């Protein structure tokens, strides 16, 4: 197999660090294992962030997300661990990770975790006519 899962996240220089802009990445095929039963859990992850100096490289993100496939993890824990790793790699102005887990035993789980740099303030929302 040419590619393997990896916990290494690569980044590249933000091409427009002078501007606040949002990067949204949708990952509809996240899987991990239930730590109680060992059965697979499936989720769609949505990463939204305002970069500072670094942006996450997409292939390394894909390999990173893949690395959780055989790990047992509670939804709350895995969402927060993924966010913490991404924040450590990119040091963004703002980052939000939303995880929408598929139904398990009649229960859906949504976990949303955020990071906000101490110096950053969100711009005011602009409403256009």
Sum up the structure in keywords.
two-stranded antiparallel ribbon, 6 strands, globular, 129 residues, alpha+beta, 2 helices, GTP Cyclohydrolase I, domain 2
Q: Mind explaining what this structure looks like?
A:
The chain is an alpha+beta fold and 129 residues long. The chain has one domain (16-116): GTP Cyclohydrolase I, domain 2. The chain has two helices and six strands, in the order E-E-E-E-H-H-E-E. The protein has helices at 58-66, 75-90; strands spanning 11-13, 23-33, 40-50, 54-56, 94-104, 107-116. The strands form two sheets. A four-stranded antiparallel sheet has the order 2-3-5-6, with helices on one face. The model has no long low-confidence stretch (mean pLDDT 95).
How are the SSEs placed, and which strands pair?
Layout (H helix, E strand, L loop, with lengths): L10 E3 L9 E11 L6 E11 L3 E3 L1 H9 L8 H16 L3 E11 L2 E10 L13
Antiparallel strand pairs: 1-4, 2-3, 3-5, 5-6
Short description:
By secondary structure, the protein is α+β, with helices and mostly antiparallel strands. The protein contains two helices and six strands, in the order E-E-E-E-H-H-E-E.
Number of strands: 6
Q: How much is the radius of gyration in Å?
A: 16 Å
Strand content: 35-45%
Tertiary shape: globular
Mean pLDDT level: 95
User: Level of helix content?
Assistant: 10-25%
Instruction: Determine the N-to-C terminus distance.
Output: 52 Å
Listing every helix as H and every strand as E from the N terminus to the C terminus, the arrangement reads EEEEHHEE
The CATH superfamily title: GTP cyclohydrolase I, C-terminal domain/NADPH-dependent 7-cyano-7-deazaguanine reductase, N-terminal domain
Instruction: Using the coordinates shown, work out and report the CATH topology.
Output: GTP Cyclohydrolase I, domain 2
């Amino acid at each position: 197999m040419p590619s393997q899962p990896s916990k290494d996240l690569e980044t590249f220089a933000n091409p427009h660090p002078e501007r606040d802009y949002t990067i949204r990445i949708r990952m509809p095929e996240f899987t991990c294992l239930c730590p109680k039963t060992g059965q697979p859990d499936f989720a769609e992850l949505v990463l939204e962030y305002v970069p500072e100096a670094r942006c996450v490289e997409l292939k390394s993100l894909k390999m990173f997300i893949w690395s959780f496939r055989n790990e047992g993890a509670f939804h709350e824990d895995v969402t927060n661990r993924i966010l913490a790793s991404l924040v450590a790699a990119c040091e963004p102005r703002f980052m939000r990770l939303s995880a929408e887990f598929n139904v398990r035993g009649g229960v859906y789980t949504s976990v949303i975790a955020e990071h906000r740099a101490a110096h950053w303030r969100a711009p005011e929302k602009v409403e256009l006519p």
